[in-house]
Amino acid sequence: MFIDFARIKIQSGKGGSGAVSFRREKFVAKGGPDGGDGGKGGNVIAVGNENINTLLNFRYSKHYKAENGKNGSGSNSTGAQGENIFLPLPLGTEIYDITDGKHEKIAEILDHKEEIILAKGGNGGRGNTRFKSATNKTPRYAKPGGNEQFFELELELKLMADIGLVGFPNAGKSTLLSRISDAHPKIANYRFTTLEPCLGVVQVSEYESFVMADIPGIIEGAHDGKGLGIQFLRHIQRTKILLFLIDIDSPNPFEDYQTLKKELHLYDPDLDRKPHLIVLSKIDTIFGDNKEKLINSISKKFEDNLQESIMAISAVSGENLTQIRRSVFNLLKKIDY
Fold this sequence. Notes:
Number of strands: 14
Radius of gyration: 29 Å
CATH class of the largest domain: Alpha Beta
Structural class: alpha/beta
Distance between the termini: 35 Å
Largest sheet: 6 strands, mixed
Number of domains: 2
Strand content: 15-25%
Helix content: 10-25%
CATH architecture of the largest domain: 3-Layer(aba) Sandwich
Oligomer: single chain
Number of helices: 6
């Protein structure tokens, strides 16, 4: 199961209180203050983990609390520090503070083993030893520990992939990903087969590869949430290149492309400016001379109206899949360098 959204509550540890204590030993009639400091409370810390790709664990466990610091004691003994609690998060997770109705982005996890403190533990209180002075040699007070911090958080995962497959439902995205990568998405001949984003590593050569994401099908009105559009569109934001997959059997492939571009632009204008490729899919469904004529006709319309070139493939027969791998990788290299 792919979970890309969760809400949790976190609480750091309270600081331990400082001690009021005086030295008591045989032959020492009036020992001075020896109260130790309290220990610091534990922090709540987010940690990036490249081996996790879902927020599933946070769906079932909602409350996270770090340990309180221990109180100080005599003989200038400092209380033990409270244990930190670590929240392992997949790369690409955005963290929002939603305490008291807010919705403020406070952090983003992008790197493996990256650590971000989400809630700081309270400082340990100072023992009465700290307050000894020339004018007050026997202080009888100490500081209490600092308070804990409490937050309600919203976690939102956006996939981190090089290539994002974009298209209408049943355009052949899952089939393409399954044929050119190690991914095994669900494939069936009906709309919205893919309900969860799926990642696959595409091997171009022994030392060359890229990560492709199969984004669930987008429909008109997706930017307003129609067809779970907002949940799907958020994953496209992190991809470097968009690969528009257009079904050659569509009544109007050109119009399909324009609709997809429009939905991306209305959701986030920056998406409309991402580098992209346009690919006609399912060309195995057209036979004889009709195939070449139809591909040329569609290509000409894209070139004449948008100055865009297109490629034509069949994920079923494997036609032009090697070329699409190489084209995508070459475009990726231009962006990265």
